[in-house]
User: Which sequence fits this backbone?
């Protein structure tokens, strides 16, 4: 039964993402808002809903390992697998505004998370057997940064409305009602499909005797990141690169600031040293992606393949440790 639910979840994700991309792209044109802004906000929030649901529920139940490992694993998956797969579909071009603002901000908040997760103590990390805590004040700080990000993004959207080119305005778009219906139905399919994939994949993993941390970093992270993967690949296939890249960067920002912020405010999250190591890996992955994107303002197919190999190495590391 779990395998049937897994297949159904995949089908819902794929069709939901297709509808969601079409509706979101149309809304961007109707409102004369750059597609990158829609990707960073509406699409990013929609595809981050599975992570929010899983991590918040885990925090309420006191399953802290799952709450944190889900976010860290999802963000690493987004950077290496989602962008890697999109680059294999076609080279992913990154706008200068994204390279100048959102991507550096994503790296900045990941560094903040590394400091918070390590309790600002290198000596404590070296001891390895210490317990670290992502407390309520840390959660409040993350949520405050989230508000700043939303404010800056909305402000940027309002300033950019008059800068849409004639070519973008000629883009074939649906009416407002049809666009809204596509977004709602697509989002419902994404969330429901992601939920089915997570539940069935976790049940299968438990049957095979895999650890909770491994499940959070790999199986659940992969399942909750499937909306980002499918949505971004569909967007890339349709030539909506801004939507694809904006979705990944926006989702990573949402995951750290909103999801970990909410989860740690609900209840302080206790971590072991492996969570600090995983955060360090996320920092490294973020910097590598940024360097690849800024080198020629695009991520090529070769770099996409290297991203996938890097994720495979990370997966093996998590499996063996």
Assistant:
């Amino acid at each position: 039964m779990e395998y049937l639910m897994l297949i159904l979840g995949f089908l819902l994700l794929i069709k939901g993402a297709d509808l969601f991309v079409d509706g979101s792209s149309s809304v961007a044109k109707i409102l004369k808002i750059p597609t990158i802004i829609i990707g960073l906000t509406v699409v990013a929030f929609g595809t981050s809903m599975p992570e929010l649901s899983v991590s918040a529920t885990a925090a309420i139940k006191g399953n802290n390992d799952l709450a944190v490992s889900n976010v860290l694993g999802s963000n690493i998956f987004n950077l290496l697998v989602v962008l890697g797969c999109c680059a294999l579909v076609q080279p992913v071009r990154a706008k200068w505004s994204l390279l100048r603002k959102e991507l550096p901000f994503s790296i900045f908040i990941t560094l903040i998370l590394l400091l918070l997760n390590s309790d600002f103590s290198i000596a404590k990390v070296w001891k390895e057997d210490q317990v670290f805590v992502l407390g309520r004040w840390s959660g409040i700080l993350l949520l405050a940064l989230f508000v700043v990000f939303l404010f800056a993004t909305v402000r940027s959207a309002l300033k950019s409305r008059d800068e849409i080119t004639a070519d973008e305005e000629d883009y074939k778009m649906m009416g407002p009602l049809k666009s809204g219906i596509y977004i709602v139905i697509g989002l419902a399919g994404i969330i429901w499909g992601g939920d089915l994939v997570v539940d069935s994949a976790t049940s299968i993993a438990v049957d095979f005797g895999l650890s909770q941390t491994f499940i959070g970093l790999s199986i659940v992270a992969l399942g909750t990141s499937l909306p980002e993967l499918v949505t971004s690949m569909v967007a890339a296939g349709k030539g909506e690169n801004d939507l694809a890249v904006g979705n990944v960067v926006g989702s990573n920002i949402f995951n750290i600031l909103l999801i970990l912020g909410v989860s740690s405010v609900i209840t302080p999250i206790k971590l072991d040293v492996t969570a600090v190591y995983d955060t360090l890996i996320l920092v490294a992955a973020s910097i590598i992606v940024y360097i690849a994107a800024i080198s020629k303002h695009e991520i090529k197919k070769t770099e996409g393949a290297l991203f996938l190999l890097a994720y495979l190495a990370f997966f093996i590391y998590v499996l063996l440790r």
Remarks:
- The longest strand covers residues 132-134.
- The chain is about 85% helix and 5% strand.
- The beta strands are 92-93, 132-134, 269-271, 298-299.
- Residues 2-320 form a domain with the A middle domain of Talin 1 fold (CATH 1.20.1420.30).
